[in-house]
Design a protein that fits this description.
heterodimer, A: about 375 residues, alpha+beta, eight-stranded mixed sheet, 10 helices, about 50% helix, B: about 375 residues, four-stranded mixed sheet, four-stranded antiparallel sheet, 12 helices
Chain lengths: ~375, ~375
């Protein structure tokens, strides 16, 4: 990586850490989450980092997006960044340019429109990429389906839906918030920092300009959208893990028992070393995956599945160890550690749990299993 | 590439092993691949990027490891290059290329993890030092021509400031080498007994009583590429053998490779190896760029050794009883030979040697994370 890029990343990281850190659950005694200020994100230029300048973006790459994502994990930020920027901007990047698509992209990047994308976030590795279908009874297109665990849909001004048409082709459908037949209900989860929703499409009429077609081949473009989303969650998990190790080192360096800092005891120090090792391996796997996704490598999914399966699990282990090493205080609501542990566990499951990613990798490495 | 070397090296005698190692080293040397990390003037000069490719290719083609010459081309050479005199370099670097074998005489029975407390003494008498004491865990001592020796020259000084670094001819009277049989049943490492061994003063490296500092400067120089080679081998012969083992049907027809739990574990190993390989490349590249992070070698050692142990353990646990009948593993083939029970037992060599993993975790905690140090015991 060139020095220029490193400097840009350092600057981006510093600004993000400063801005997001103020609302970290580790600051003050807040165990509850409140959303970050979207317009600050827009002013910081985070909404269009990997969007072309012509669309109002910064013309950078997904590498820069991941710098921000990692800081959001580090601060356990509550914001619709994932739904609007990772999923929606991602979807709009992978569909062919139309007036409607360009307009949506410009408005999202400027900060005055927030979007979400309804698609499978849970079991897409073993089943369909989306629960939504575009049907054409008697010529008029209608969108039907029920989606769950849809990120940031309640907060979104408008919705994009990944749907499969009657020919089996995937497309992105743009819906107004008040489209007749559309219902969006919050779906509370234990992690207080992410907002998920049920989305029901009950025979919503769809006009042609609202059907955004993927770049060719659609399956591949859709796969890249899922890679982007999956990797984004892995970035977040790494940020969570890094925050937890930092907090643990700081705490055990100052907390004294038996007349010495508890971090000087081998049992504690060695557990911290193990946390660092997991984080170090995670950093390497993440860097490989970011590179593969940024250059749109054909086999980028391999690096993504490696990263997501490893980091998803590692972040839970590191956050769990952080709770352990903080002792009683770590188990309190006000410490904020639990917020990170909850976020790490949700991250581990979002866009494929570790075993699902490894099933996909195993099929690639070893072929399909012989059935008994 | 020597054809069929794994078979030939399985159950090979000590003589066959030594002759194979020397022959393979000569072939690599003639091809320009034996000491790529040395400066050009001494026969090396390969760029680090090319060395990475070289080790990747050696692993991909399942080349034998360079074992017998390992200490000579790495530790001895870096000691001579960093701290040796011109005369010492001229005497030994060309000789190493001609097959001079070196051994490390650092650890002692009472100085393992706490190496600086070593007791072997070197007393100056005229133009020579007279050395008495005992060394242990000296890999390859039985075949060594020369020894990198740490001995105490000032028993009154602080323990890190009374040690000197010597080049010792193993043929000197008073040097007695006895092999130690390890847990696998092999005898690579040895005890070295030193009884009034005379070392000429010209064989002192650096200044008297600065041996600890010399050792610290030269110990870590090769870690990156050796670790990279081991990681690449783990992905190639190691992982392939593991998958192969899991593909063999049992009498019932069951193949572990069809079992979702086995596939999950194998894939997790592959992912971890990918992380390790990337880490090794990163360590080397950062070292080159002058942006090395503290104690990276400790992280790499911890990562490799415990992954090796878990992988070999998994192979043994999954493969059934038949793997227990493999009573020999090939020499020159490293720690992931596919004779899984012996590989598993052998993996403790990596979690213990070169500073136990407990020591590595302490180093990582203190140097990478800045955690408070253990209180020092008085008089240490």
């Amino acid at each position: 990586m060139s020095t220029d890029f490193s400097e840009f990343h350092d600057e981006l990281r510093t600004v993000a850490r400063d801005l997001l850190g103020q609302s970290s659950p580790l600051v003050g005694d807040r165990g509850d989450a409140s959303p970050a200020n979207w317009f600050q994100f827009a002013r910081a230029g985070w909404l269009g980092l990997d969007v072309p300048e012509a669309m109002g973006g910064a013309d950078a790459t997904f590498r820069e997006v991941t710098v921000v994502l990692r800081e959001m994990g580090r601060a356990a930020t509550t914001s619709p960044y994932f739904g609007s920027i990772i999923l929606a901007v991602g979807a709009l990047r992978y569909v062919t340019s139309t007036d409607q698509r360009d307009d949506l992209l410009r408005r999202v990047v400027s900060g005055d429109l927030r979007l979400a994308v309804a698609l499978a976030t849970d079991d897409h590795l073993d089943g369909a990429l989306t629960p939504f279908a575009l049907q054409c009874p008697g010529g008029a297109a209608q969108l039907v389906g029920r989606g769950h665990f849809i990120p940031d849909a309640v907060e979104a001004d408008q919705l994009l839906v990944l749907a499969v048409d009657e020919d089996g082709a995937l497309a992105i459908i743009h819906l107004e918030d008040d489209a007749p037949g559309l219902s969006i209900e919050p779906q509370p989860v234990v992690d207080p920092t992410r907002r998920l929703a049920h989305v029901v499409a009950d025979h919503i009429e769809v006009k042609d300009p609202a059907i955004l077609r993927f770049r060719d081949p659609p399956e591949e473009a859709a796969q890249r959208l899922f890679d982007r989303a999956t990797l984004a969650i892995a970035c977040d998990s790494l940020g969570v893990a890094e925050a937890m190790l930092d907090a643990t080192v700081a705490y055990t360096s100052t907390r004294h028992q038996f007349g010495r800092p508890v971090g000087s005891f081998q049992a504690v120090k060695h557990a911290c070393a193990d946390m660092l090792l997991k984080i170090t391996v995670s950093q390497e796997l993440l860097a490989s995956a970011i590179e593969a996704v940024s250059v749109e490598a054909d086999d980028a999914w391999i690096a993504v599945s490696r990263a997501k399966s490893y980091i998803g699990a590692a972040a839970v282990e590191v956050a769990g160890e952080a709770m352990q090493l903080h002792g009683g205080i770590g188990f309190t609501w006000e410490s904020g550690i639990h917020t990170y542990l909850k976020r790490a566990t949700l991250n581990r499951s979002l866009f494929g749990c570790p075993t699902a990613h490894r099933r996909r990798l195993a099929a690639h490495w070893f072929g399909d299993p012989l059935l008994p | 590439m020597p054809v069929g070397w794994r078979e030939a090296q399985t159950g090979a005698s000590d003589e066959e092993y030594v002759s194979f190692q020397k022959g393979w080293f000569n072939e690599l040397r003639d091809a320009g691949y034996a000491v790529p990390h040395w400066p050009r003037e001494w026969g090396g000069g390969m760029s680090v990027a090319a060395q990475i490719v070289l080790y990747q290719e050696l692993a991909a083609h399942d080349a034998p490891r360079v074992e017998l010459a390992f200490v000579a081309i790495h530790h001895a050479a870096s000691t001579l290059l960093v701290a040796g005199t011109d005369d010492q370099r001229r005497r030994h670097l060309p000789a190493i290329l001609e097959g001079e074998i070196w051994v490390q005489g650092f650890s002692e029975p009472e100085a393992g993890s706490d190496l600086a407390s070593l007791k072997t003494s070197a007393r100056r008498t005229g133009d020579a030092y007279v050395v008495n004491g005992q060394k242990v865990w000296s890999t390859g001592a039985l075949h060594a021509d020369w020894c990198l020796l740490l001995a105490r020259t000032d028993p009154t000084a602080d323990k890190r400031h009374g040690i000197s670094y010597f080049l010792m001819d193993m043929n000197t009277p008073g040097v007695d080498v006895r092999p130690i049989k390890n847990a696998v049943g092999e005898s690579h490492f040895c005890e070295i007994f030193l009884d009034d061994v005379v070392i000429p003063a010209e064989n002192l490296v650096g200044t008297e009583n600065a041996g600890w500092q010399v050792a610290n400067e030269t110990l870590t120089t090769e870690r990156g590429l050796t670790a990279l080679e081991l990681a690449e081998r783990l992905r190639n012969h190691g992982f392939r053998s593991l998958v192969q083992t899991c593909t063999i049907p049992r009498r019932s027809g069951y193949r572990p490779i069809d079992d979702p739990i086995v596939r999950d574990h194998l894939t997790a190993f592959e992912t971890e190896i990918s992380g390790l390989r990337a880490l090794c490349r990163g360590v080397i590249e950062r070292h080159e760029a002058g942006t090395a992070r503290p104690a990276e070698a400790s992280l790499v050692k911890l990562c490799y050794s415990e992954l090796l142990q878990r992988m070999t353990d998994f192979a043994v646990a999954t493969a059934g009883l038949s793997v227990h009948t493999q009573l020999q593993k090939p020499m020159s083939g490293g720690w992931d030979s596919g004779a899984w029970v012996l590989d598993f037992i052998g993996s403790w060599e990596w979690t213990i040697a070169g500073g136990t993993n407990e020591i590595q975790r302490t180093i990582i905690g203190e140097r990478c994370l800045g955690l408070p140090r253990e209180p020092r015991v008085p008089n240490q």
